Fold:
Amino acid sequence: MPDHRGCGRSDRPADGYTIFDHAQDMVSVIDHLGLERVAVVGSSTGGAIAQTMALDYPERIDRLVLASSWARPDPFFVWQFDLRKRVLDELGPEQYTRLSALFLFSPRYLAQNHRAVDEWCSRAATVDRRILARRIDMILAFDESARLGRITCPTLITVGEEDFCTPPHMSEELARAIPGAELRLLPGGHLVYMERPEGFAQLVSGFLTS
Structure:
């Protein structure tokens, strides 16, 4: 599972923070591994990257899973990320990350797993402030809605029923736009694979092997 540029253990270049650049990065990983066609599972921003991969490199993508993703920013999405970016600018990465946790985890999960969420916040807050700001701009600029009808590979779309970051209506829009796409809702929030790992793994594995 590769880290996006600017995140985790990947390099932190000054430029290249567009979904198109990230899609090229992921295709470079596929090339490096010597693989011709792969199944791509993308969550959240990874789902945006996966959409662009399926559109620009259709010959490389066998199956597609889009988890907690979106086709285009709507007013709720813009309002959310404008606020989060303002918190980043005025209060810094630590408070930005703690605010983000309210959008990314369901209330029940956060209440019952607050120590795990605290640990997640500590790791996430290590990303450079400038890179976080550029990633927010990248997220708000993403819009593949006009091209989604060209995706031809089998596609599974899944989202948490309590996702407050990319609510279910955004996954419903993806499912309507991508021919033959299957939409499945799971209990949980935006990071549904963390909240319901067994259910998420079972759903995705079943789709990839069917």
Notes: The chain has a mean pLDDT of 96.
